[in-house]
Design a protein that fits this description.
- 2 copies of one chain form a homodimer.
- The N and C termini of chain A lie far apart (about 70 Å).
- By secondary structure, chain A is α/β, with parallel strands linked by helices.
- Chain A has 3 domains: about 160 residues, FAD/NAD(P)-binding domain, CATH 3.50.50; about 120 residues, FAD/NAD(P)-binding domain (3-Layer(bba) Sandwich), CATH 3.50.50; about 110 residues, FAD/NAD(P)-binding domain (3-Layer(bba) Sandwich).
- The first copy, chain A, is built from 11 helices and 25 strands.
- Chain A has a 5-stranded parallel beta sheet. A 5-stranded parallel beta sheet of chain A has the order 9-16-10-11-12. Chain A has a 5-stranded antiparallel beta sheet with strand order 21-22-25-24-23, with helices on both faces.
- The mean pLDDT of chain A is about 95.
- In chain A, a hairpin with a 6-residue loop joins β19 and β20.
- Chain A is about 25% helix and about 25% strand.
- The longest helix of chain A has 15 residues.
- The first copy, chain A, is globular and about 65 Å long.
- At the A-B interface, α8, β21, β22 and α10 of A face α8, β21, β22 and α10 of B.
Chain lengths: ~450, ~450
């Protein structure tokens, strides 16, 4: 019986195993994870910490027992230490007992995910200092909130997760300060759009410090020496009983690299459209792997939960002897931050400049629904188009409830390679509960129009 | 000085006048309307009647005074009775005083809108029987609700407006019965999707009678003889103190037709992409005019507020000497009915059959956001694709809050002429407040996939 081994048990790993089972009912499938749980919705963790999701089990998509019923053996607390591609073996170690064993494979899917980038500062080991990546991380933060009732949080890093955690801590009644090294929040959006978010946060009494580095995490004077009490930055001393380090992630590719797997963008495992690595019968998927940006054509590292699921399926299908491919992404991202929504897709200005693409931008301000309609809120839409020619390059949205998911229209147009002019008259849905008569998306596209 | 005359003062007429002003600052622009107000959001009327929009003035986009500041003369209560294209004259009559006059034009935009189709039954003149088309209609219904406190409403016709008014009456605490001649509610959607809406309505204690004709509107026995009290249908006698007739609309094209303007689909004024009629210098736009369905290539009559605005702009631009065109629509529609949302775009099954297009359908059931996330609700998505080839033909959505505006992804893909396979891996936005990890739109498209 052929044996598929999957390393990793969150989005990509479980998607790969489940898909492989559907492709080949007779395949032996074993999944190894160093964690104590599999198949959880890690993107839901900020809402679990906020208390909007009550129970840990709500985050679990499929349990070990469900996998077992599908003939997928899940091995918890088993860390893959070494891959031997010549002998087709994976050496795994039990992280609780230390016992080691070798597991043979016919096909291997590496779905080892990513790890938080830790700022190189002293004090990271103090109690009250967290990262948020795994369910265990989420449980630890929630427990700390319940047991210690911290009043002041400092969030280091103002990307999506950092700002989603602003919402979580804010809803818990804490005062929140965000410290970001870059000169703006949301460094993957343009500065003008990010400024709208910063302004909003400050209006909600979230302190935002940009272009500022953290120098040290320290205990508070006169308090327990093993517990964080102060964040020292270049210009401030910020009292904090809880610190979240959310300065981005890096791919967990060391295991693969040691086995001779070639790496690509940002040190992630290089894969082709079939999720094949350079080694025969070795696939990779998810946050440890590269993908292709379909607007630029470049290999990129853009770890996202939805991409991990898609890549996992493709890796699982091919590893099981099927035929599937994943062409790439267009760089879509979305987040809610309290009552504000943000989204982006395609290329932002910095990315266009780096690629040498000449572009024009248009930004409009409108309403989510007509001004007369209950719940009407502000929305800003920015569009980037190539100059000349008008090929759509990207879009960004910042606005109130109902704003951000409109990014899908742009993501669709980018996928289909459209010029902005193709969509000027698009028949987007209008009724007062949903949109102004000219949808903000259309307004932004039409801002490129030159007409009589 | 050239003189542009616009007949009609709601969406298309005011859009035409405003656009013409932007194109030619020196143009004399006169707008005639038989109504007492201009530039109101007629699509907001159900929410005004429901009481969700408090004040009449909230529905007014631009007042007569604002138009005057832009050099657009608005003439209220002036009905155009005759167009003389040879002498380039419009004869208008003051509907209050009866005075007539002739107005010369260099260019004419006909934006006379549409009128409700009235079922040919006795009793339509009774007090308590309404249609909903104009602001005056909306004011009359609201006044009747306030003064008469009707408890039981019968809505004749289960299209968008009929069902939007279910929400309005329901929110007013009335018991509501809907009578529809067709065998389903929402006759412009497929029966299977419409059945979900009917089931929902019945669950909310709205009585729905389909495949049933109204025979007469009558006073109640022993009550005022000039006031409705009963709706007699083929199979029922329905007590009702308020009756709304919402059995569709027909274009107001008689004025144009008498002047020799050619008519097209459904008796609407035939226009080309520039909104030109067959007569020189005579344009038409909005609910009185035809458009082109870009999926079928056929001339159609699909009156929609958003199309009226777009066509009005184009008519105004061209009438003022500019250059603009409107290619057509893809048949998008959307409505909210209490907590249920519905939308459609492209062609439905009946339309495909009528056009002789071979097609396949896929329908999926999913969640608006992950099951673990607060506010998660059911969503159904149906997709139609051409067979063979997989060209996207249309889509329909029925679901809870957050469902229907997803139709815009399909409308965009239809505008760009995509096959379903082009979007299987589309990078649609995912975060728990917005979507499950596989957006329902992607699930529906992927249901067409045949893979290993």
């Amino acid at each position: 019986m052929r044996h598929l081994v999957v390393i990793g048990g969150v989005a990509a790993g479980t998607s790969a195993a489940a898909k492989a089972r559907r492709v080949d009912a007779g395949l032996k499938i074993s999944l190894f994870t160093q964690e104590g749980r599999v198949s959880y919705g890690s993107c839901g963790l900020p809402y679990f910490i906020a208390g909007q999701i009550a129970e840990e089990r709500q985050l679990i998509a499929r349990t070990v027992e469900v996998f077992a019923q599908q003939g997928i053996e899940v091995h918890l607390y088993q860390r893959a230490e070494e891959i031997d591609p010549t002998r087709r073996l994976v050496r795994v170690v039990d992280v609780r007992e230390g016992a080691q064993r070798e597991v043979g494979y016919d096909a291997l899917v590496i779905a080892t995910g990513a790890s938080p980038v830790l700022p190189p500062v002293p004090g990271r080991e103090l109690a009250g200092v967290f990262t948020l990546r795994t369910l265990d991380d989420g449980l630890a933060i929630r427990r700390y909130l319940q047991e210690q009732s911290p009043q002041r949080a400092v969030i280091v890093g103002a990307g999506y997760i950092g700002l989603e955690m602003v919402e979580a801590f804010h809803q818990r009644g804490m005062s929140v300060t965000v410290v970001e090294m870059a000169p703006q929040v949301l460094p993957n959006m343009d500065a003008d759009m990010a400024a709208l978010v910063q302004e909003y946060l400050e209006g909600r009494e979230v302190r935002v410090l940009t272009a500022e580095r953290v120098l040290a995490l320290e205990p508070a004077a006169g308090q327990a020496a093993d517990r964080v009490g102060l964040v020292r930055t270049e210009r401030h001393e910020l009292p904090a009983e809880l610190v979240l380090l959310s300065a981005g992630v890096r791919p967990n590719a060391a295991l693969a690299a040691r086995a001779g797997v070639a790496l690509g963008a940002a040190g992630a495992i290089r894969v082709n459209q079939r999720m094949e690595t350079n080694l025969p019968n070795v696939y990779a998927a998810g946050d440890c792997a590269t993908t292709v940006h379909l607007v630029s054509g470049e290999e990129v590292y853009l770890p996202m939960g939805t991409t991990a699921n898609k890549q996992g399926r493709v890796a699982g299908a091919n590893a099981a002897g099927g035929e599937a491919s994943f062409p790439g992404v267009v760089g879509t991202g979305i987040a809610r931050i309290l009552e504000m929504e943000v989204a982006r897709t395609g290329l932002c200005e910095r990315e266009c400049k780096a690629l040498g693409i000449d572009y024009r931008t248009r930004t409009i301000r409108s309403r989510t629904v007509p001004g007369y309609f209950p719940g009407s809120g502000r929305i800003h839409v920015k569009v980037l188009a190539e100059h000349p020619g008008g090929r759509l390059l990207g879009a960004q949205i910042v606005g109130r409830a109902g704003s951000a998911k409109r990014i899908d229209v742009f993501a669709t147009a980018l996928t289909l390679g459209a010029a902005v002019g193709r969509l000027w008259d698009a028949d987007l849905a209008y009724a007062p509960p949903f949109s102004p008569v000219f949808d903000p998306v259309l307004l932004a596209l039409n801002a490129f129009r030159r007409e009589a």
